[in-house]
Amino acid sequence: MRLLNFINGQWSEPAEGKYRHIVNPATGESLWDVPRSTREDLNRAVEAAKAAFASWRLVPGPKRGELLFQVGQLLLERKAELATKMTQEMGKVFMEAQGDVQEGIDMAFYMAGEGRRSFGQTTPSELPDKFAMTVRDPIGVAGIITPWNFPMAIPTWKIFPALVMGNTVVFKPASETPRLAYELVKILEEAGVPAGVVNLVFGSGTEVGEALIRHSDVALISFTGSNETGRHVAEVTGGELKRASLELGGKNAIIVMDDADLDLALDGIIWSAFGTTGQRCTACSRLIVQEGIYDALRNRLKERIGQLTLGSGLDEKTDVGPLINEQAVEKVRKYIQIGKDEGAHLETGGTVPQDPALAAGHFFLPTLFTDVSMEMRIAQEEIFGPVLSMIKVKSLQEAIEANNRVTYGLSSSLFTRDVNRAFKAIRDLATGLIYINAGTIGAEIHLPFGGSRGTGNGHRESGTAALDFFSEWKAIYVDYSGKLQRAQIDD
């Protein structure tokens, strides 16, 4: 099967007729072909989005919301089908793929409601017979660039608030997971999105992505991906005074105190560190443990890791699926060697599985390092794989300091039965997401999502916070006094 671009309401071949082949990362099975588009394709899409903006911005917000309600219903009806395709091309286990689609469903219904709730403000004027209020305005063409690890959830986090606020969209998804982008845009088309309002252009970051962030008719860029690419996006868009939202990496930690429920903590650690094979920006890659339970937790954790089953995500017995590609396997392998060289103790894992049944896939054994210090690279750098580093501390204060001693600030977690400890951690953990007695993953779409420091540039996705990025505030003054009144001058 060949996927197609979607430009100005039409499905079309890439200008140069070139394609890239997609395979199942668990089995090596041949799947489908994705366009290798060029700047020419991107320019056509931007031109269509720019033309469509003039009419789409005038569609009443509730009507834009009604379209998203239709999209949400179609996603709900096709949840299992979409999750199957996601597992085939991305590798995450079917249960997690269903959760990925469910986030898209939730976001559709939530943002549909914002068509009627995109509230402004009214406020008293300092002068008599004068009215003051604020409203939101759409901005223009939104460039949407998304990663492969959440191929339904993350596009919907960006596209749906952009649309409900009256912007038009040019969407460049990750080349590794094109099918879910294709299916999402097909659903938008079926729901009745007007021609040019949503455009889909497949292609590489160096070709299509670069053209998108530099295009003078693209008013804003919403990007999720690596820190290296995020810095480049920031440099380009900053030089052009173009609005950009950057959601980048994480080096997230779970803190476990001596008084914690260890059974609960173990469940949270396993889910956070090895769910999605560690390929989440919110995955737990550091485990910060108070010294009194360090040995007991290490032993129990090592046992639990050894019980995890690797395999195809479509097999209901599978706990951990493959990494996305061979490059990801090599990156994890490199960090295993770095950890050994730095003096960390490899407790379990650290290599590819020897099972011949897994030989065709990009698998890596869930890995645990102990005796890790905060200065080690495996405790500082994002690995994006099933690797967990265990760090010993004496107190909550030392644990919080360890948590904050990385360049990222996305997600953190604390397991404790002490409410005083919990609220001190909530105050002092320098991350955008904080969980108490839960793992580092599991954000809900009606709360803002994002982090601080190296994780991004301060914008938030999800919830009403997402509307701020995709809209401009307009302040309005109506003077009905019948005379000139001068603010700050006339009393």
Radius of gyration: 24 Å
Please tally the β strands and state the result.
21
For the biggest β-sheet, the strand order reads 14-15-16-13-12-18-19
Oligomer: single chain
For the terminal residues, how far apart are their CA atoms? 72 Å
SS element count, helices: 14
CATH architecture of the largest domain: 3-Layer(aba) Sandwich
Can you tell me about this structure?
- With 491 residues, this protein is an alpha/beta fold.
- It has two domains: 5-248 and 456-476, 3-Layer(aba) Sandwich (Aldehyde Dehydrogenase, Chain A, domain 1); 252-436, Aldehyde Dehydrogenase, Chain A, domain 2, CATH 3.40.309.10.
- 38% of the residues lie in helices and 20% in strands.
- It has 14 helices and 21 strands.
- The protein has helices at 39-56, 61-77, 79-90, 94-117, 153-164, 178-191, 205-214, 227-239, 262-274, 294-306, 326-342, 396-404, 419-428, 465-469, and strands spanning 5-7, 10-12, 19-23, 30-35, 121-124, 130-137, 141-145, 168-172, 198-200, 220-224, 243-247, 252-256, 284-290, 345-348, 367-370, 387-393, 408-409, 411-415, 433-436, 452-453, 472-479.
- A seven-stranded mixed sheet has the order 14-15-16-13-12-18-19, sandwiched between helices.
- Helix 4 packs parallel to helix 5 and helix 9 crosses helix 10.
Topology at a glance:
Layout (H helix, E strand, L loop, with lengths): L4 E3 L2 E3 L6 E5 L6 E6 L3 H18 L4 H17 L1 H12 L3 H24 L3 E4 L5 E8 L3 E5 L7 H12 L3 E5 L5 H14 L6 E3 L4 H10 L5 E5 L2 H13 L3 E5 L4 E5 L5 H13 L9 E7 L3 H13 L19 H17 L2 E4 L18 E4 L16 E7 L2 H9 L3 E2 L1 E5 L3 H10 L4 E4 L15 E2 L11 H5 L2 E8 L12
Parallel strand pairs: 7-8, 7-10, 8-9, 10-11, 12-13, 12-18, 13-16, 15-16, 18-19
Antiparallel strand pairs: 1-2, 3-4, 5-6, 6-21, 14-15, 17-20
Helix pairs in contact: 1-7, 2-4, 2-6, 3-4, 3-6, 4-5, 9-10
